[in-house]
Amino acid sequence: MRHILVEITCRGCAYHTHVKSHTLVKPQLEPTLKERILQGTMFTYECPRCHSIVSFIHSFLYHDSERRLLIAMALSDKTINTLREQLPDSQLYTVKNPQQLSEAVKAAEDRLAIESIELLKKQLKKQDNEIQEVIYHDYENQMLWFTCRYKNHEEYKAVPYTAYEQVKQKGRDR
Length: 174
Ligand SMILES: [Zn+2]
Fold this sequence. Notes:
- By secondary structure, the chain is an alpha+beta fold.
- The chain has two domains: 1-109, no CATH class; 112-174.
- The chain has helices at residues 31-39, 77-86, 98-109, 114-127, 161-173; strands at residues 3-9, 16-22, 24-25, 44-46, 53-55, 60-64, 69-73, 91-95, 133-140, 143-149, 154-160.
- 33% of the residues lie in helices and 34% in strands.
């Protein structure tokens, strides 16, 4: 698959190196890379000298051909338009960072619509002004679990699957 070299400078000890990183992942062919995206380790590097974790970001495409799903991170508008033209039957989502990418892949793995998850996250934020960030966590026993980040702590909040279905239906009706 395709790679790029990423320049890494450790913030802890200024160790400098280049690492090979993937710019395209096809989850059916590369299940271990999919796992790394889900675990949030795909765009990190551990410094061999001081063991600090260095995070990086670059243009990246996740292409699940079975689910006809494209998740694009930091791609140019031109590339995104080309992908839309080349794969008109696929759904294309854009994400801004590896955490959003991981969340989108998780939602897809749980067979949930990413845009409906985003709407549920907005609803949770509306219900509580103190919440700074909401992250989709898991789907279990007819409940969707979200991690809500507050200024000084985190809380898990559950949303029933029926609420997800309502949001999804509304999205369709629009
Ligand atoms: Zn270091």
